[in-house]
Amino acid sequence: TWSVVWQPLPPSLCLPPSFSIWVCLPFTQPAGVYWCACAPLWSQECGTSVFSTGICVSVSNDLEPRETISPTAQRCATYMDIVIVLDGSNSIYPWYEVQNFLSNILSKFHISPEQMQVGVLQYGEVAVHEWSLRDYQTTQEVVEAAKNISRQEGRETRTAYAIHMGCTEAFSPERGAREGATKVMIVVTDGESHDWEELPDALEECEKRNITRYAIAVLGHYIRRQQDPETFISEIKYIASDPDDKYFFNVTDEAALNDIVDALGDRIFTLEGTLGYNESSFKFEMSQIGFSTHVLDDGILFGMVGAYDWDGGVLKEGAKGRIMPTREAFESEFPQELKNHAAYLGYTVSSVIVGDWRRLYVAGAPRFKHKGKVILFELSDNGDVNIAQALNGEQIGSYYGSEVCGLDVDQDGITDVLLVAAPMYLGPGNKEAGRVYIYSLSGEVFVSNGTLKAEDRFQDARFGYALASAPDLNHDGYTDLLVGAPLEDGHNGAIYVYHGQGIHIIHNYKQRIAGSSLSPSLQYFGRSVSARLDLDGDGLLDLAVGAQGSAVLLSSRSIVQINMSLSFQPHSINVIQKTCQRGGRESACLNATACFLALSQLSVVAMLDERKLTARALFDDSNQRQTQLGVRVHTGQTVCHNLPIHVFDTADYIRPISFSLRFKINDTESGPVLDEGWPTTFKRSVSVWGVYCGEDDVCVTDLVLQLYECLNVTPLCRQQPYVIRSPRRRLAVEVQLQNRLENAYNTSLTLHYSRNLHISSHSIRVRNTHTTHTTQTHTHKNTLHTDLQHEPDNFILSPPPSLSSSLPFDVSIPIFLSLSFPLSRRIPS
């Protein structure tokens, strides 16, 4: 079995601080298994605007990009092909003013392959392509090219011919026109056309190709000659698209062309960044796709935190296509009157499986009403939303719902626990301590079941900034939880490991890993966490933790459970028959076999009779009660060691001899560690054979004691508690001891008597014993103590034998005349 003790694997993976990237879990495509890497702040320039649509890319296991995923990326409104049709006839004067206008208007355009392309066609009597749409890729290039345009000259102004040529040739694919690009023509002329009768046909060609036309009338020639320009203005208005107030311009002379540069630029890309150009709010231009992702069996669920003016939303990209619910689909929980409050729906996304195997999608909105909200909902293929449950935060500014995590603790396929983080929850001292709310599944809804918090210290922690499930870190069959707290310890950061049990998460954390313990330079360690793969190939689940500018890889260390067994040969100690000699003495010998099953190097200490002051058995190798050995065991293999022991004569054969093994694991710095709570001591006992105590080898005795006081030292004794006075100066006491059950060992009799009695003699009679015997008797301070023994071992009082002891006393009358004295007796076994 395995648990988690983390070590850093150098070197750390460093990323440029300016590059924001998220990595989602592996997902399956028809061509294989890929990773998903997202850059939610990836932006595209569209004219003067910058839109953070976000982008993701599928990456193979060898880190090769495969496919770009950018469901909210849109073609810029400035994706235009622009052709300037420029009058270069003799009447245009001075030409450098026209060049200045051309340079100024071109510098307003955002020219690139993804935005604008510009071509210039100059005409007089003939028309010439100065450059085509595909010729230049940057604004700088076209501005430089404009400085080198010379006037075409010509006595006639064939405007219709030039427009027709522009529509049919300049916008052709051969000259770089792009499919889907908005086609714009800007016609600049200073006089009536000499081929005005051909204008209808030329403009019809433009209409067929959806070419929008801006027309600029330069009145300098008419003003200098004091001619009426009305006919000329009418013709230019006819050339311009409708309405005239949007597409028609007139200027007094060539120099005044520069006065309309800004207005012309604004009208060409009226409202950059909106699909309809005339909308005043954003839909998906700022969606930041990839800010949160969740891999599903049939696709990927994306959070669109910036969609719909930062109210947020979700998007599913999968086998059935793209599913993008509208803002109105969530209206029941996110009313329209709060549409400008920036709820950030989609800040985090996930999914859970409830009791009827129904999948519910989960999305957090940490800024909803400033307290935060989490919704659980169903999403149909046509984008309809059915909200099943909503959970609400309790503290303003806590960012409740900024992170969610569903756990299938018992790994039966049903989500047991939903965790919702509020990392900015203010704790004691107004510190951003953070907390994680626990919701347990009850039926088909989740109910509150307490919270998780960081250590009780007055500090900023942002506990819950990152949450991740870990599939059974300690191999107990339950899913575990990882929680990041990147502001702990002065922004060094930390992560917490919680273990699952049953269908719940144990509320007390099992391990805390401080970033400062890995490297003092780490900052914001725990801002992201993941535990999905074996990164170093050792067969153990490893952990990746994000920090500022670094990704730290932590390797799991294996933790072992030591399975032990202990056997004896023979199975018990024969106290009657000695089988060997040790130290020149007859002894009972046996062999203990200790076996171990694990993967580690162990240091083992074996001990005999550890609770006794004097050991009854010793090891042969050390002639001591204790011995030490080293053991190396391998996975799936049992390693056994023989430990010969011997037993000398002893006064205690009643209790079995205990045998204990105490072990520890060597190389705890880099090797495995013992599973927490697993015992480090193994104990067995070996029974004594020949004690005749039944099949259980436990002697259960029933000693019956009777005492008789004989005043005349005759068989006519009586059982009386007190003797007032004897007419004679002699008193006899007879004690009878009988065992009615199993053998009694180490039997002794103790008689306490008054100090006015003096023992004159002592005799013992034993009946129905199976052994020879002796007695050892001694007196001390009015106490008689008798031990009954057999040679060479202890006396055995076997059923049904009895023992009688007669003790005549001399009575000292002068001292205790007319006084009574008690007789007490105590017989331990």
TrEMBL record:
Membrane topology: Single-pass type I membrane protein
Coiled coil: none
Transmembrane segments: none
FG-GAP repeat extents: 386-448, 449-507, 511-571
Major location category of this protein: membrane
Pfam families: FG-GAP, Integrin_A_Ig_1, Integrin_A_Ig_2, VWA
Signal peptide positions on this chain: none
Organism domain of life: Eukaryota
Subcellular location: Membrane
Limits of the VWFA domain: 81-264
GO CC, alphabetical: external side of plasma membrane; integrin complex
GO biological process: cell adhesion mediated by integrin; cell-cell adhesion; cell-matrix adhesion; integrin-mediated signaling pathway
One Gene Ontology term of the molecular function aspect: integrin binding
Keywords: Calcium, Cell adhesion, Disulfide bond, Glycoprotein, Integrin, Membrane, Metal-binding, Receptor, Repeat, Signal, Transmembrane, Transmembrane helix
UniProt similarity note: Belongs to the integrin alpha chain family.
Database matches in PANTHER family: INTEGRIN ALPHA, INTEGRIN ALPHA-10
Protein name from the UniProt record: Integrin subunit alpha 10
Species name: Oncorhynchus kisutch (Coho salmon)
